[in-house]
Amino acid sequence: MDTIADPLAAIRNLVGADEPEAAVVPASAEDCATFDDDAIVCTCANVNAGEIRNLVRSGTCNSLDDIQVKTRAGGGCGACLPFVAGIVQVEIGLRPQD
Ligand code: FES
Asked: In the predicted model, what is the mean pLDDT of residues 66-88?
């Protein structure tokens, strides 16, 4: 399997941003809720919503960048990035507060 040296390269190329994660507008919580856990969010990397949710819930991933490094989601065409970012945002919001 090929490795992706820069998982944010696709979105950087699309938006021409120096900080691509900041350029991604997360999908709404309502839109993200339409993904069942087994629904594929990123077809390029074959990553489903449950995998993203579990990585955030476990504390393994704390940002879109973390998810991209861990799963490669969003590292292809970049079309899924709003949904990946939205799911990350929703799950972080659901974490118990200290
Ligand atoms: S669908 Fe996720 S990078 Fe293409």
From this structure: 96
